[in-house]
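pipeline/complex-builder :: batch 7 item 3
reading input block
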Amino acid sequence: MGIGGRIVFVIVALLFLFALYLSLDANKFRATVHVVEGESVIGVNPTTESLDFGDLSRGSSAIRRVTLKNGTAIPVFVKAITLGGIADLVDLDKNNFTLAPREEVTLEFSLFMPASAESDKTYAGRVFIFKIPTIRS
Amino acid sequence: MLHGPPVDTIRRIPRVPQLAEEIVRAAASAEAEARKKRRAPWSGALSLVIFIGIVVGVPKLLSWALQTPHPMAAITSGSMWPTFKVGSLVFIEGVQAEEIRVGDIVVFRNPENASLTIHRVVRREGDTLTTKGDANFKEDVPVKVGDVVGRTLTAFDKPVRIPYLGSLTMFAGKLRAGE
């Protein structure tokens, strides 16, 4: 491997390690909602592991809140990604923003059950909240 | 006693025909590289022309084939979820008024906001259509058959759509609007 190849290898390795750090440091939640007929049963606010929207009937909605704190001395860029079948139903009140050092923010995940949701079906997915260290400008 | 180079050294010195072969191979490869460099500017320009042809020509070709001035549409809201998800690209075909049936997904000029809307026909009374988004609870304001621009193209009884590709046109639209 020539010198150029070694430099590329080091850069790729550093990028991989950075991506690994971001993945390990991200807040991860399992998100679920169950469609029911009639009365909705809104569950309690999430644990640190899950965003459970409970049992919702069509036309009803629920909100779940997650508090994020930047415990570091540098600002972090917050990016939330929702994956899975539930992703189409969940809205987030703020995304893609910078959290200052020691600052805290509460994110609101709201879910509205549309008319076309299938009865007795559970929509599930995962929510990843990445905190990417940024350079102060 | 004979003196000379060690036996393994004698074995490693290539024979003259082998050397000549290597020189010819190196010259041929240098010529091929030079030929590739000479061709490069033309192939770059050709690729650009092909790309522009595809970007401009495909919508025109689709418009002609599907008999509608709006052959493609990006889904920008979740009102037709789960049939169409936000960011999908759907294809629209021209349709005669008498061919529109209840259950068809049509594109029409929405009188409420002067935009194009894609919803499903839930009722037809003469020349008046009542539509509703699958995910909505309320029906839309009825529209005339003449306001219908087209019907979503279907294959095997399912609408033809390309997931995520509509996001590109939505992004381009936002850039144009300066957002």
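note: The first helix of chain B runs from residue 7 to 12.
queue -> next item
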